[in-house]
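Can't attach files on this board, so I'm pasting raw text. These are the components:
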Amino acid sequence: METDAKGSKIIRLAHGAGGSLQSELIDFIVKDIAHKNVNNGVGVKELDDGATIPLQQINKEIVITADGHTVFPLFFPGGDLGKLSICGTVNDLLMMGAEPLALTSIYIIEEGFDFDTLGKIVNSFNRTAKEANIAIIAGDTKVMPKGTLNDVIIATTGIGIKDENIKILDNNLKVGDKIIITGTIGDHGAALMASREGLNLTTDLKSDIAFLKEIHATIEDNIRNNHIHAMKDPTRGGIASALNEWSVKSNVSVWLDEKSIPIKDEVNAVCDILGLDVFQIACEGKALMAVDSNYADEILAKIKSTNLGKEAQIIGETKSENPKKVFLKTVIGGTRFVDMPLGESIPRIC
Amino acid sequence: MQVPGTEGFRDEQISEKIARAITKIVNSINRKIKIMHVCGTHENTISKYGIRSILPKELEIVSGPGCPVCVCPAADIDKAIEIGKREDTIIATFGDMLRVPASNISLSELKAQGADVRIVYGPNDAVNIAKANSDKEVIFFAIGFETTVPLIGFEIFSNPPSNFSVICAHKLIPASLELLIGIDNLNIDGFISPGHVATIIGLKPFQLFSNAYKVPNVVAGFEPNDVLLALFMLLKQIKNKEYKTENEYTRVVKSEGNKKAQEIISEVFDSVSSPWRGIGRVLDGGLAIKEKYEKFDADKKFDIKITKSVDIPPGCSCHLVMTGKIYPHECKLFKKACTPVNPIGPCMVSAEGTCSIYYKYGE
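---
Top answer:
Structure tokens for the assembled complex are below.
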């Protein structure tokens, strides 16, 4: 256990990396919250992508998500902090089955940060919001003394609306569900890693950053009819984190077929060179779904007809045996576990 | 999906074919067979591709002390920590090294307490840090087997800035093989040797070993079908009662190795008897920087003496795991008190550590 000089346990970077250490931090923060939901809607207890506030009079639910956005470098191949903030917020709403309505934004800026760079981020933020057709309706700014923050952080709250009978939740997977991924995995994390100073890897990799409205629209009927049992954008911690969370919350096992999982050659190569597990690498423009097997082919065909979903695949299914675990049939026909990532992936020595 | 250049090496049909041949030969030998590899990257391949799950139960594959992070003695880390506590120093090392428990704290804890400890991807990055920080002493904590040694040797040889120095904790593979073969009751039928080490040192040191101890040995690559093929080659030797070093990794390993790299190693380093964490002192098991280059030797520059250190904390079985005596799940701390989040022993830390690999990919 890591402690400071006085012996108090300290927060490590890995506490923010989407693995089991992050769960420990979240639990530390939320465990003593007195009121954890409104009108029996989804709340902090469920630790899902967002929360709901039921509006029983009109059979609808307001969906709320909260997100803090930070990325290094601020501008990366394929995107920047502004675009990332909007896409992340919109995707969290879509993954709850909601139609995104509006968001609030808070810019926390370090003293000395320049207007030109901020302007580029703000432009990208506003442009992406326009493309996603979501309103920005409130916000705040804070400036922190130099050295107390690195450059800029954006915090958002997303607000959406959905029919009350749509239940797309982490704890809603059923035995026999098919798992669909809407495209190649790991693009965002691998592009960032390769572009970091010191690695000197030359690749054409770009972040897959995108908002998933097009995919949401094409399967709207299936969402309305609850053919989609769970949906998630596998960001930090990758599909390993998302699938482990589902298997635990829904008490099923997930069985993946490695051969069917779409991965770009360059992403595989970056992961091989650095000794990283591609299943733990972040995507920023992909949806992972657990769907009713009777509708899996139909849903896959619809997703494949979109621009974002051309490389979508059914990558596995759920079973009742050995619940709360994720298994992988490897490319050579062996079987292994896919475990919950613990924290930040560290490149290896040799 | 296929990574370019791996064609065939991850091909399921080929894997199945080799696995069938392995099963046939294991059945004909008709007893338990124990193969040991001594490289974390081999364990990673075996676990990541689920290789054990497609092999017959009578064929046991155990891990040796093949992770440079795991065998680095606590005293060396303690030394880096003592130097790192000084305000005018920057410690640079590989990412895996940061969280390894030493006698008291780890380098990662030292960093959290405010010391300047940086992760680098190679020794050249550390030299660049030294160039950019001429008012600081930059100490590269050098670990690794023969694969990383030439890189560090080259930096020392190339006359780096005077504020750059190296804690030399390098270890050598052939010595570890000799040590393992001498351990009672281990009964190893054959070794898979690391292809990247042979790429540097060539086949000769391995041939000397297999001849002297009459033990089959195959130098192997790191793709799943490399490992499967190496197992098949070993089994054939075992069946025919042969003992030689064969090269499975012919697309990379040359018999004579990399002469240039060997020259750099012998120019800069002397082989010395060296402590291995959990194993003890190994004759010719490590390297020290030659006197000629002592101005870059952090040991000489800082004169820190660590008199007492704790390699294996109470209850930890890393020493048994590293010598192939037990599997990680046979340690009573495994997955309970000892996890990659809060590692107690060194094998749980590094991505190449046997316990950490078992934790990640399952037993």
